[in-house]
Structures are given as structure tokens and as C-alpha cells.
Amino acid sequence: MQEQSRKPLSRRTFLKTLSTAIGGTAFLPLLAACQGTPPPGGGAQAPSGGPTATVLRAEAGAVEPTPAPRQAAAGRSTVIEVWYPYGGADAPLYEEYWKAFEDENPDIGVNAVYAANDLSTNAKLFTAIAGGKPPDVTWVDGPQVAEWAARGALEALDDRIAAAGIKPENYWSPSWNQTVYEGKVWSLTYGSDPNFGFFWNKDVFVDAGLDPEKPPKTVEEMDEYDTIIAKVDGNRIERLGFIPWTVYGAANSLFTWGWCFGGEFYEPDSRKITANHPNVVKALEWMTAYAKKHDPTKISGFQAGFGSGTQHPFFQGKTAMAPFGPWELSALKRYAPNLQYGIDFLPTGPDGAPPKSSWVGGWTVGIPKGSRNLDAAFEFVRWISTSDTATMIAGKTFNQFPGYRNSPYYNEVQNNPQLKAFYDILVETKHQRPVMPAQAFYTGELARAVDAAIFGQKTPKEALDEATVNTQKELDRILREGIS
Amino acid sequence: MAKIAQSLTGVRQHQRSQSRRKLYGAIAAHIALIGLSIVFFLPFLWLLSTSLKPEWQIFTFPPVWIPDPITFEHYGTGINFIPFWSYLSNTVIYCFFAVLGTLISSSLAAYSLARINWPGRNILFAILVAVMIVPNQVTIIPQFLIFRTFGWIDTLLPLTVPAFFGAPFFIFLLRQFFMTIPKELSEAARMDGASEWNIFWEVIIPLSHPVLATVGLFTFLNAWNDFLGPLVYLNSQSNYTLSIGLQQFRGQYDSLWGPLMAVTTVMTLPVIVAFFFTQRLFIQGITLTGIKG
Amino acid sequence: MATPALRFKRRGLSPQQRRDLRSGLLFAAPAILGLLIFVAYPVLASIYFSFTSYSILQPPFWTGWENYQTLLFDDPLFYTTLYNTFYIAIFTIPLSVIVAMGLAMLLNVKVRGQSIYRTIFYLPTIVPFVASSVLWLWIFNPQYGILNTLLWYIGIQGPGWISDPSWAKPSLIIMNLWGVGSWMVIYLAGLQDTPQELYEAAELDGATAWQKTIYLTLPFMSPYILFSVILMLIGIFQYFTQVFVMTNGGPADATRVYAMYLYQNAFTYFKMGYASAMAWLMFVMVVLLTFVIFRTSARRVYYGGQ
Fold this sequence. Notes:
The structure holds 3 protein chains of 3 kinds.
Chain A lengths: L10 H13 L27 H12 L15 E7 L10 H10 L3 E7 L4 H12 L6 E5 L3 H6 L7 H6 L9 H5 L2 E2 L2 E2 L1 E3 L3 E3 L1 E5 H6 L11 H11 L1 E3 L2 E4 L10 H11 L5 E2 L4 E2 L4 H17 L1 H8 L17 E4 L2 H9 L5 E4 L14 E3 L1 E4 L7 H13 L1 H11 L10 H5 L3 H12 L2 E2 L6 H16 L5 H21 L4
Parallel strand pairs in A: 1-2, 1-3, 15-17
Antiparallel strand pairs in A: 3-16, 4-5, 6-16, 7-15, 8-13, 8-14, 9-10, 11-12
Chain B lengths: L1 H50 L3 H4 L14 H9 L2 H32 L5 H11 L4 H15 L6 H4 L7 H12 L3 H9 L4 H12 L1 H17 L2 H6 L8 H11 L4 H32 L5
Chain C lengths: L1 H10 L3 H35 L2 E2 L7 E2 L3 H9 L1 H32 L6 H13 L2 H11 L6 H8 L11 H14 L2 H11 L4 H9 L4 H29 L3 H6 L11 H10 L4 H26 L9
Antiparallel strand pairs in C: 1-2
Helix pairs in contact in C: 2-14, 4-8, 4-9, 4-11, 4-13, 5-9, 9-11, 11-14, 13-14
């Protein structure tokens, strides 16, 4: 290829020639841009083919307008306000929950407000609580429970849970554990995400000359497969085996591979951060070696054409292997209907690391401090987490495994091979992300460490040492100041 | 005679070479200006071109410069992805009240500083100038907490209400301009029994249209472009302005470049159009206000 | 009658002065209120917060110098963000002055069509930062972006730009240079203010264009340059939107700038006290740097008629 002869541009040459380079472009009609805006919503024309076009168009269809706030049914004596974090295509489906809850609880109405789970939302919730106008119920991401509890943002639920006869053993243990902080229970788990199923694209395997029915069993094998699958055209990456740091963000990637390599992230009894656990370091070293193999900036160039979720390169056959959660099953069915794939346990890490590694993520539902309808609010929390109706909706409508083990949904799962694969993963799982009040900070630090290591700015050991020290300091500060 | 003739031809030659030099200079200037214009304008063309391309042409290499066929589908998708009209109306409300509030409060204060001779005005002026270098970040947290006590979080009020309490930079600009209006005009009005308000409203304001237009335009642009304010104060999507809506759109659909570019175009175009119509006034205003200080 | 006269004397105000004081205060009242509510109180409050630990949900409690100590001696990320901010400032400011001055001088040449050129150069500054950030993200796209395409046409394999840690800051600087329009207009106003007689005299003496630039234009423009440099400095310390939209601080912290870290501490980690301390350190740095610039430039800045 022509590009192979091209020399990479160094910063120095670039700065030297900045001024001349600026002028050397082709002339284009200047006023072309002033023709005015096309009418909004103007006529759509079909794209004239191209393999990616269908996929991208399908994705475009995935995105739907933001839901308007939902008003409770008329004539209810108590109305609770519920904040939920799902926008996009899933949002309209939530009506099923509100409706079913109102049907089963004739006295309680639900006002549902979509509140995206991003930086601004925590601010929104916290100011609402501090301002004395919190919602009655809010979804809380699993790893945030301890932090919100420590900050005094949640009501403890122990008495009500005991009264309702809910027991720890009703839940998948990591999902129960993530809701317990300082001996109290602060929320009930809504969904247990078996993180992750290892997906491989059979078509790409065939194309690369691999056996489509034999996924890699170890991380070493995964690396070998990558070498066979990767297609690099000059300086342009066309296809990769996988990208180790795109497992739902850099921090979740490190959790996934860190545990896979036999590492640990937190020592709860001594309250010690252990991001620099030798096996976590090993996992990051492996990710870094992968980055070096393909050149991290080339990979980020490759990645820049893709995104997360349905824009993940796996959906377009551009990566052949990826850890995914069960919710991707319906996304794959919808947006990449022809993609042939298999699901298995994650490959096993090196040097006697435990096989079938996975961890449990997922959301919980809790009551913000200051809710004025505690009884109705708890009824909703209990209902969404444990009732047959709600857990069946979770499973059937959202491919969401309930945190509640006794849900009838788990009988259905047995008959579906894809879901069964995830069920098997869930049964094996022992890990959840650390339950401690500096989790958001920790996540940020882990992401920074991954970034610094794969771009070669620090060794994996240095990067993780730093993350450990910083997070420990932050955790100690929060514990010392005794925020709760 | 001969000497004079000689020197005349010399002058003529000199003039000729000088005008030739001027011609070359003009050509060189044009070439440079056109070249640089292309550099500065190219991003806009790239924006427009991407927004009008069919999806598959966006991800081709080498790229297609002129979309074929031209398609408006991204505008439809982009605008339907987000509650575009609600973002737009929030933005317009924000801009309207910001401009209105700033013009009223800042011109009143500037009048007081420039045209009324009261003890303490120099101190006030000095404070205003000093305040200009206090970074946003120093005040934003306590301001956030103030508005929280008012219960104004997640409304447009924290963005619009402060405009009615004067903006130091614009007070400064307006004051500089009001100072240049001859004292005699207000003295004459005062002789006729006009109150300060009459003088302000009937003498000073009518003479200050260019600077008021400048301040209005700057305020409009600041509000239209404001990002940090809406980011900090607005939480519900129904209250979002365009700038924060676009950022959210980018966060969620980070590789849907077509719709992203379409929405960006839609957000950019009004300011470009506004600028085309007012640019003379705009640049005149900047010159007028004597930023020399 | 004696009492009011006495009072006037004591306060030293004539009836006219009293009227002036009253109407002066009345006209300035909104602004004075604004200063008190939106500046004075927040400034004092943020000084207080900077000595506390404050997470919004609980009332602040006094921790003394702890925030400052942690920032200065125990927070490597603080220095990383400071370094990134200075890096961007050190390249952006001089390059912006050069580019803006160059454009202004070109626009000051008497040829036709200047208002069109002026509009084009100015246009980028009125585009919302969020919009231009999204646009530049696409321009910088390593695989499909216009920049690497143009480089490819001339036979260069372009870098990863904004997604490459060693190129991310230069990328932001390039983007900043695209937006020099407002400084350009200010310089242009200055250029049109410079006394033409001096140029004519210099031309008669046979001065070259270069000599005229160095010995006439630059001295006359020096107050404008000083003014713009200080404003740019203040602006760069607050540099936030572009980074927030484009990179969120990555890759590998290469674009994590000061204002961004401050925002993160305040509104992601709810460390309001810590963030307030950062804001005050920033203010102190801006004031010190402004002072240094004034001092070092005192002899080189020429104010007409002095």
C-alpha cells in the first residue's frame, strides 16, 4: 500500500511547517456554506448502499426522543416520585413497570422522572435532598450505594426489609453485599448483571481461518487469535481481535481483567485499597502489551470511528471478541441481526488464575433521605426488586437478570441457551465492585491508570501504585471526617 | 531645463515603480487573504459537507468532498433525537432575558458612573474593574449554593436573573462610551428642568445605539454559547439549552457523526446569520468602545 | 434652620451634591446589589469554604489549611493540570498574538473585499464552543478527519491528534488559533488608530516594510498586545468547555486542565471546599502573573503621547 511509505509526522516537523501547511489547501467555493439550513426533519433519502450504512442507519433508529415525565394515574391517595436512569430506546418500555405497579397498588400513583445517571444527576439528586425536596425513590448504581449511604443521601431499610421478610439469601450474594454498608442495608438490588459473557463472532473466525466453534480458553489463546484476526492495512487498522480496555469503560475493563487474572481491588476488613495487587498489575501489563502490539494511538484512531453500546465495533464485525452483558442480546438481535456469535465464560487468566471469572454489576433501588412517603416508597422498592410481576418484566422486557434469585424468570432462563450461558456465569460469580464510600473516585483513578499505562506514560505498576495511594488517601479522608 | 526634465522623468519612473510595487503588494495581499480565508473557512465547509452526506460517505477514505447525493436525513434524525425545539426555546428565553437585563441594569449603572458626579463613584468603578479579573470558578460554588437556597436549581433563573444586576465588563464598556458624550447636552437638558431619568432616557440612550447594540450582541452570544452555567444549574432535559443538549447528544451518540454535524450546523447557523447582518455594527462597536481602556 | 445647615456643613454636601448622591446610588443600585449578592458574598463564602470540608449534604466543617496543603504537597494531579494549563498558555498566547496581528495587518492593507475577509476570520469566534468542539473533534478524527486527509494528500501520515496523548495539547492549540478573531479585531482597531504621518515620513526615509513593522507598528500596538495577553491568560485559566466536550481530560490526562479538575472536584466528587481552594490558588496565580507581565513589559509598552 501507498501509505506504508508515508513517514509518521513528528511534532517538530509539524511545528516547523505549520505556517506553510496552513496555506496549502485546495480552493473550494466559499459561499457554499451560506445557502441556508435545510428544513428540519426534511425528506430522508435512502443511502446508496455500503455495508456499514445499514448498521449505522439501524443505530440511528435506536435512538429515541427523551421521555417526558410520567404522571401518576388519577385518584391515588399517595403519589410517589420515582427517578430512573434509562433514556433512549428503553425508556418508553418502563411504562410497563409504572402501570403494573399502579394496577397492583390501587392507592399509590407513580410520577416517573427520567434522570440520566451522569455527573450532573448526582448533583441534581444531592441538591434535591439538601434542599428538602428529594424524590421518594431513586435508582442507585450498585457501586454508589456505599458512597451515597456514607454521605447521608439514603434511608436505611433494615427494619422494613425485616418486616417484609426479605432475607439476604434471596439475592445473589454479590448483589446483596453491594447494598450493605456499615452493617445496614441501604437499597435493594434491581438487576444482577453477570459481567461478562465472552462473545465471539463466528463469521470473523471463519474468515480468519479459525474454528468458529472454538473460542479461546485462556488469555494467551485470545492473544494468539488476535494476531490471526487483526487486519492492518498500512497504518490503518481494519479489524482487531478485541480491544481489552473497551469493556464498558476503562475502569470496568480493569475490574474484568483484574479479577480474571486473580487480582483483588479492596480488602474490606482493613479498608485497604489494593489496586496494585500483583495480579491486577499483571492484568494491566497484559493490556499494555496488547496496546504496544498494535500501537495505542493507532487503536484509538480505529476506535474513533466507533462508540459504545450499539456503536461498539463488535456490532460491525470490526472486532471479533468482546465481553458483553445479557442486555446486548436484544441489541444484537435488533441492530446486527445477521451476526453469528457464540457466548462462553471469559478466557482464564495465566498462572493458575481462577477459571470462569466474572463479577456482578447492576442497579439497585433505594429511598433518598427526606422522602415524605416512606411506606409507599418502600412498597415500590420491595415490589420492583422482589415481586414476580416486576422481576418477570425485568427479564422479559429488558433482558435484565433480577437480583432476586427466587424470581420465576429464572425458570424461563433454563430454556434459552443464550440466557442459560449467562445464568451459568451468574451462578459462578463471587465478585462485586468494592463496597466503600470512595468508589466514584476509585473508578476515576483506575480509568486514569489504564490510560497512563496503555499510552506508555507510566509502567502499569507505577500507575496502579499511584491509583492505590490516591484512592486510599481519599477513602481515609472520608472515613476520618466521618461524613455519615 | 534639461536638469528639470531629467528629474521629472526620474520622478515619473519613481512613481511608476512605486505604483508597480503597490500593485504587487495588493496581489500578494489578496493571495494571502484568500489562502487564509480558505483555512479559516474550511472547517465550516467540512461541517456542512458531513451533515449533508449519506452515512456511508462519511466513513470513506479518501473522503468524499461534495456529498452525492445531498441528503437532509441527518437533520431529521438529529433534530428528532433530542427535544430540539424545547432546547431552542429555552435558549431563546435565556438569551432574551440576559440581553434585556444586561442592557437595562448595565446602562443604568454606567450612566451613574459616567454622568452623575457622586462621591464614591470612583470607588465603585475601581471595584468593578477589579471584579473583572476574579475568575468564574471562585464565585461559582457559592453562587450555586445561593441559588440552591432560593430553590432555583434546575430552572433558568440562575442564568437570567443575575443579568438584571449588572455585568461589570459591559458597565465598563458603556461607561467609556457615555463619557464621550458632551457634558453640554445633559447640562442643557438639566437647565430645562429635566430629571436624571429624563436625561438618561431621552438624551443619552438615543445617542448610544451603537454601543447598546454591541453590548446586546455580546450578551446574546455569551448566552447562546454559555456552557458552564447550564451545565451547573440545569439538570432536567426539559430545561436544557442547546449548548448542553448538544454536549449530551455527543456523549450518548458519539459516533453518529452525520446527525451530530447536522445539529451542530443548526446550532451554529443562527449566530452566523446574525453576525452577517450585524457585522458592521459589531466591529464598529468594538472599535467604538475603546477597548484601549 | 440652623440644624440642617449644620448638618450640611458637617457632611460637606450641598443640596445638589445630595441630589447627585441619591440619583447616583439609585441608578447604580442594581449593580451594587449585584456586586454584593453575586460577587462579594460568593468571594467571602468561597474563602471560607476553601478552609473547610464541604460536600453539600452536610454543613461545612473547618479543616484549616488542609485543602491548600493537600493541593500543594500531596496531589500530583494538581500539578499535572497546572502543567497542562501552562503548556497550552505558553503556546497559545504568543502564537495567537502573532496570528491575530498578522491577520490584522493583512486586513489593514488597502485592497478590496476586506469586509468579507474580516468576516471570515472573525466567524470562528462567534461559533458556540460546544459546536466548534464537536466540529474539531471530527476534523481531528485520525481515520476520517479532514486534517489527516489533507496531510495524506501531501504525502504525510498524520498523527492521532486529539486521541494521542503527545498530540492532544498541540491539537487544542491549533483549535485555539482558529479562534483568534476577536483579538484580530482589537488589533485592527489599534492599527487603524496609528498615526499615518509617521508611516509616510518613514516611507520618505526609505524604510522597508519590515522596519516599519518593527519600529512603528509594534510600539504603537504594544498596549493592545499587553491588554490581549492579560485577557488571554485569564481566559486560559478558565479553559474548560472545549476539553470537557472533546476529551474529558484524556487521553492519559494529556488534556486535563486546571478548570476541568476544579469542576470535577466540585461537581463530581462534591469536594466543594477543595475546589474552592483550587479557585483561590488560581486567582492568586492570575494576579501574580498579571503583575509580572505588567512589570516586565513596563519599559516596552508605549502609550501614545507620554
